[in-house]
Design brief:
heterodimer; A: alpha+beta; five-stranded mixed sheet; 18 strands; 42% strand; B: 215 residues; eight-stranded mixed barrel
């Protein structure tokens, strides 16, 4: 009976201490998730024969749109929007359609903290779909990261080169190439039709080190057009280690050397001792007289 | 010899005073002197008004307009108003920092994007000189939501909002988080923090203020 009570008390104590330890741990976890809990999303219309649309971004289970982009025409890519990590949905409606009308297309997207996504309307109007692209935000040291989105219906299959690098030997309409690290600098991007008969399209693009680019191949008024998007940018040559930004003038000082004080105490003792002895001898002399 | 008596008494008294002084000095210097830095942010004094000028909204088109170079930095909440010098890399590959004589001035790392352009722009400043505070002495007082302004060579103003403030040991500096690519206009302010190592004459930690452009 007694033993059981003790056991129960011990268990309660153990439970309470676990709770106490657990609360700060949970609090720290919460704090870190709120400080770094944002990702990025951008919206694009890359379907050549689809008229302009209104694009809506909804936070999961909230019917009020967070972002509405009106009259988004073919070839438009929005800037990235920073949003809290979580589940979202993207809906497309015909330009000018009521916000409460049934969307033409919709898709869900999960945004992870520190990651970026492009949600693009892709394909021909008859087979329009919303595609979620996972965008890379890291570059190989000293390089530029480049990929291609093929959004030309006029040339269904293209070869894309940047300088001497082949970004894709054969990229089909409504598809996306893998990322590739390239040497930074001003270079010529050339898009050529895989099927013979069509001329090449060339333009110059400048890519700095430490940047991520998406080249979008579009149907132009005549022939093809290449849009160079700078998706992300950082320091091409990141400095090594931390930064030495202080000279220590306001830093706490450690305890100084005790030696001078000890010497002073020693000298004081000698002085006092000498004085004291003299006084005593004087008194003795006075007494004898 | 009664004339010696006052001299002896004087010596005794002086000796005792010196001992008392020595003991007091010894006891008082046994404790390290605290840092000049206030540990917690007190009542924030809005010493400076927010700067004025055309604030450039983030571009809506696919091809962003080029952004002019930064020329000055204002952080009203902590009384920072400084011109910006340009900083590169030192020969050892570390970040160049302003000289001691320029410790009241912050600098923009020219290897990073310009403030307001897409990417993580880097501005660094000293926390202190050899005997007092420097430009980023009060950087640690910033918290999420505080405003930072950068004026550029063309007179335009970029407005940033602090998203987080982090302290890292220099031995574990998160290079990718600080200098890596980001897809929106951001700013990082860096200075020193933590323990000062008197042997190497360097602080052991860095404080990094993360901010994003208000658009």
């Amino acid at each position: 009976m007694n033993f059981r009570r003790i056991t129960r008390r011990l268990l309660m104590l153990l439970g309470a201490s676990a709770l106490l330890l657990g609360i700060p741990a949970a609090a720290t976890a919460f704090a870190s998730s709120t400080t770094s809990g944002t990702g990025w999303i951008r919206l694009a219309h890359l379907s050549p024969n689809t008229p302009a649309v209104d694009v809506y971004l909804y936070s999961f289970d909230n019917s009020n749109a967070m972002i509405v982009l009106h009259h988004v025409a073919y070839g438009t890519v929005s800037p990235y929007e920073s949003v809290q990590a979580g589940d979202y949905s993207v809906a497309m409606r015909a330009a000018g359609a009521s916000a409460t009308s049934q969307p033409v297309l919709s898709t869900s997207v999960t945004i992870a903290a520190g990651h970026a996504y492009t949600v693009a309307g892709m394909g021909p109007e008859s087979g329009l779909r919303l595609q979620v692209l996972d965008d890379d935000l890291t570059t190989p040291p000293g390089q530029t990261l480049v990929r291609v989105i093929q959004a030309s219906l006029k040339q269904q299959e293209v070869k894309v080169t940047l300088g001497s690098t082949v970004l894709s030997g054969s990229l089909k309409f409504a598809s996306v190439s893998a990322y590739q690290g390239v040497t930074p600098g001003a270079q010529t991007v050339t898009v050529s039709a895989v099927s013979a008969g069509a001329g090449d399209t060339s333009s110059s693009v400048t890519c700095a080190a430490g940047t991520v680019h998406t080249l979008v191949v579009l149907d132009g008024a005549s022939g093809l057009e290449v849009v160079n998007l700078e998706d992300a940018s950082g320091s091409g040559k990141p400095p090594l280690g931390g930064v030495s930004t202080g000279f220590g003038g306001t830093a706490p000082h450690g305890p100084g050397s005790p030696v001078p004080w000890l010497v002073a105490i020693g000298a004081g003792c000698m002085l006092a001792l000498t004085g004291g002895l003299r006084l005593r001898r004087n008194r003795q002399l006075t007494a004898r007289i | 010899m009664p004339t010696r008596r006052p001299a002896a008494a004087l010596a005794l008294a002086a000796g005792l005073i010196v001992i008392a002084g020595g003991v007091a000095g010894l006891l008082l210097t046994r404790h390290p002197t605290p840092a000049m830095r206030p540990v917690a942010a007190g009542v924030a004094v809005a010493a400076l008004p927010a700067p004025t000028g055309p604030i450039v909204a983030p571009p809506q088109s696919a091809a962003p307009k080029p952004v002019a170079a930064p020329v000055s930095l204002t952080i009203p909440l902590i009384g920072v108003q400084t011109n910006l010098m340009t900083l590169g890399l030192a020969s050892d590959g570390e970040m160049q920092v302003p000289a001691l004589s320029m410790a009241s001035v912050a600098g923009w790392y020219t290897g990073s994007p310009r403030p307001g352009a897409i990417g993580s722009a880097i501005i660094v400043g000293h926390i202190d000189t050899t005997n007092g505070p420097a430009v980023f002495f009060r950087l640690h007082e910033l918290t999420a939501g505080d405003k930072i302004y950068v004026k550029r060579a063309d007179g335009t103003l970029a407005e940033f909002r602090v998203t987080s403030v982090q302290t890292y040991l220099k031995d574990h500096f998160p290079t990718e988080d600080v200098y890596g690519p980001v897809p929106d206009p951001e700013l990082r302010l860096i200075t020193c923090d933590g323990t000062f190592d008197y042997a190497t004459r360097h602080y052991l930690s860095n404080i990094v203020v993360y901010a994003t452009e208000v658009g």
